[in-house]
Amino acid sequence: MPRSAVLEETDSRATLRGGLPDRYLTPDDIAEVFGVPVETVYQWRKKRTGPPGFRIGKHLRYDPADVRAYVAQCKADNAAA
């Protein structure tokens, strides 16, 4: 496969994922995505604001699809205000 075809395939997958990795995200990932301290991510969780997370054992994780939906909802809420 030509190199350009590989790059196009990779770029289209990245577009479908909205630029997020193809794995569950950690609190550190969420902090990096939103440009906030990781402690803010834990406060969002405690206050039940921010993107919804879930636990796998003792580990907190976020589904990239839920993060995208959260961002879309925030954008819609801001547009309506």
Mean pLDDT: 84
Roughly how many Å is the radius of gyration?
A: 15 Å
Q: What is the chain-wise order of helices and strands?
A: HHHEEH
Number of strands: 2
Low-confidence parts: 3-16
Helix/strand class: mainly alpha
Shape: globular
Kindly state the percentage of residues in helix: 55-70%
Distance between the termini: 49 Å
> What composes the largest sheet?
2 strands, antiparallel
Enumerate how many helices there are, as a single number: 4
Explain this structure to me?
With 81 residues, the protein is mainly alpha-helical. Helices cover 60% and strands 7% of the residues. The chain is built from four helices and two strands; from the N terminus they run H-H-H-E-E-H. The protein has helices at residues 3-16, 27-34, 38-47, 64-80, and strands spanning 54-56, 59-61. Strands 1-2 form a two-stranded antiparallel ribbon. Helix 2 (27-34) crosses helix 3 (38-47). The termini are far apart. The model is unreliable at 3-16 (pLDDT under 50).
SSE diagram, text form:
Blueprint: H1 3-16, H2 27-34, H3 38-47, E1 54-56, E2 59-61, H4 64-80
Antiparallel strand pairs: 1-2
